[in-house]
Amino acid sequence: MALVANAINVLGILFLSHAVYSAWEHSLLPSSSLPPSPSSILPQALDPKINLPLDIVLETLASVFFLCLGVVLSSPSLKPIQWSAWAGRLERCKEARKYTEFGVGGGNPYENLEERPGFLDIRGANRDFAEWIRHSKTT
């Protein structure tokens, strides 16, 4: 499924980049410096200086649709909304506690906060000091 989702995302990006380039090219078309007469045949909504052609608009909408579809298909499965259900599953299952990649799989996303890597372990340092004192008194 990931391959299909990535292909849809690439297709959407290609369509969107082509639509943006087409809109930019359309904006560079020479236009008349004279204002249109009030009795013009074309209504104001169809004036090419104001609106983009229909094919560029449709290509932009199709590319946005393809990008949204690709992002939805490539997203991981949803996690439970209730905190108690998520925490209960985490406590019951040892495999759920493993957190392999960021945003993928189960696991505890707050594991780094609970372990506090890089902080000094004061209690461990106090135990080591107490053992050192006990050891130095016995010798």
Question: Describe it for me?
Answer:
Keywords: Membrane, Transmembrane, Transmembrane helix. It is found in: Endomembrane system. One of its GO terms (biological process) is protein folding in endoplasmic reticulum. It is a multi-pass membrane protein. It is a single chain. Helices cover 60% and strands 0% of the residues. With 139 residues, the chain is mainly α. It has two domains: 60 residues; 48 residues, no CATH class. Helix 1 runs antiparallel to helix 2. The radius of gyration is 31 Å and the shape is elongated. It starts with a helix and ends with a helix. The mean pLDDT is 77.
Concise synopsis of the structure shown:
By secondary structure, this protein is mainly α. Helices cover 60% and strands 0% of the residues. Helix 1 packs antiparallel against helix 2.
Q: What keyword list fits this structure?
A:
139 residues, mainly alpha, elongated
Helices and strands in order, then pairings?
Blueprint: H1 2-27, H2 54-74, H3 83-92, H4 94-97, H5 111-115, H6 122-138
Helix pairs in contact: 1-2
Subcellular location: Endomembrane system
Main location: membrane
GO biological process, one term: protein folding in endoplasmic reticulum
Structural class: mainly alpha
The SSE order reads HHHHHH
Give the beta-strand count. Answer: 0
Please, how many domains? 2
